[in-house]
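Reopening this ticket.

The earlier resolution said the output was attached, but the attachment link was broken on my side. Pasting everything inline this time so it's all in one place.
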Amino acid sequence: MYRKDEKEECCYNYKKKQQQAAIASIFSYKHMKKVYPVGLYRSSSSSLSSLSSNSSSLSLTLSQNSNDDSSLTDHSSSSSSPLDHKVSLALRLIAPPRQRRREQNSPTVPPRPVGVLDHDHDQDGDGGGEPRRCNWITKNSDKSYVAFHDECWGVPVYEDNQLFELLSLCGMLMDYNWTEILKRKELIRKAFGGFDPNVVAKMDENQIMDIISDKALSLVECRVRCIVDNAKCILKIVREFGSLSGYMWGYMNHKPTVNKFRHPRNVPLRSPKAEAMSKDLLKRGFRFVGPVIVYSFMQAAGLTIDHLVDCFRYKECVALAERPWRHM
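Inline output:
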């Protein structure tokens, strides 16, 4: 009976040792590393046999601050398996952003300085280095229209002849668009004597008919006679206010209105000041000076700055508006 119990005890101990060996092989670091992409650590100095008796605990941890991959590779002298390599790559993808940036060795684009807008680098969005303009200027826009936007539109004007010219050109918008007008601007300016009010006001019937019959100009008769009549009205304003510039800028308190529009749909067709100026001009005998035409004139002459805020001309025109003595 005693030998039988001893024999059973020996068999039990043998099976127990086999179970411990199997558990040790299963929970060895090399095998666990293939299942869990983390480091395996044992608390205290307990032996492998304590795994079966639950006398110790396991902790699975990810290193978020280390730069090397020592916790993800085999510590033995043998080379890592393909599975280990895949696990390592997967871990790099899910690593924290700070750690990923340190681990990437490929050259990166330097960060953009604070306060530098997009249009300072690529202002047209096409990588061509073109400045960013107002949205109504497109790649298909005529060169004369683009040049007018870049050089004239929104620049404060204080000279009487230039103001008279812009007011006359804006009156032609009822029959033509800006591109058609700007292509003939030099011919129109020459035909009307540089838009000198003293010269235009003295034009006789023969001179008016010569302008009307000029096919290169292609101007409607009522527009030509309107310009001549407006020149006579300007002479009256000059006698009363000293200059056309003083009269126009008096409505603006001698300082342009600076708007901050971001989208073309925000830009109005008229404004209260344009309506007030239009009403007074009509009383003084001017023709074709409705509030919409007057507001177009105010935009072109820089009485109001309506460049979109992301247009490269916005800051330049605002600087001229705030420091008019630099422009005059």
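Reporter confirms the inline version is readable. Strands lie at 39-42, 58-61, 257-258, 304-305. The two ends are 124 Å apart (CA to CA).
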